[in-house]
Amino acid sequence: MRKLFMLGLVALALAPVAASAQNITSFYDQGGSRASAKAGGGLPVSVSPPASRWAYAAAASGIAATTTAVTIKAAAGTGLSNYISSIQIQTATLGNATELAIRDGAGGTVIWRTQLQTTALPVVTIHFPSPLKSTANTLLEVVTLTSATGGVYFNAQGFVAP
What we know:
four-stranded antiparallel β-sheet, globular, mainly beta, Jelly Rolls
């Protein structure tokens, strides 16, 4: 029988077991975060509270020719923060290079940024092993810091937790 020990969000498995679809164990930490581990030493397949996941999908034309920020997740409520666990970025050919930033609050602190060049960018997925975290009860937004013709497509996934 396999024993799982939880250390934060890292599971340690002891004693070998034949892996099968039935050998998946779910457990919760003290904050209610769920992690699943596969028998045979597989990586966790999910690390987020089960009922509080959210996703943001890019608008049909993306972010184009503007420096106006787009809210990707509204404030979560008193004592709750928004977390971003992964994002996807894609661009059409841009008229000029720009920066893409995720901000904590309307016009707030930049918590993540990257440069985007003029050459079209295929879909790039970025996973945050330590999710980006907003201040409690604060929205998250994405913005291009200089206006550029062409579309910038941004998707995000995350969860809400204390």
